[in-house]
Amino acid sequence: MTTLEQRLAKMEKQLRFYRWLFIAMIITGGFLLMTAFNNHDQVQNLVKAKEFQIVDDAGRVMVSLKKDLDVGNIKVFNEKGTNIIHLLKSDEGSGAIVTKNSKGNINCRIIDYEKGTGGLLEVYNKDGNVVSEAGSTSDGGGYFGVYTINDKKVVQLSTTDKNTGYLGLYNSDGTNLFRVT
After folding, report:
1. Burial of 113 (C-beta count, 10 Å sphere; 0-12/13-18/19+)
2. Rounded CA gap, 181 and 170, in Å?
């Protein structure tokens, strides 16, 4: 074979390769184009149910959204099925958040305080007693309290009805040690 014939044979071989590559690209592109627009999941505008639950692979409820006591409730559960977070309606009719430990005992509670006068954050110890709280007073000022393990107030920091400050320190039995207004 001469050099010219060798070059032509090599070019024909390359041409066959590029022709198959081009055909494969056209078929792949056509397939992708045809399937790309057909499999979209249709998103519903509205889904209604009495309860929604998110469960794990074992079927245990991890999150529950439902109507309870004539209002909406959201509960989050741990892997043992214990309710650890609860979003609900407070006794005063506003929103409330309760966090719990792994045994289901209250750790923290955020609620409406005294018929809509403001919010209240309570922190509980392992025995279920309030050990500190922060919130608002009935006249709209701020409030902070610290309690003993036996639910006796030992520190109170707040405003008064005359918009001045108040600091109170108490014995473990709740009697006054020191008060400043």
Report:
1. buried
2. 15
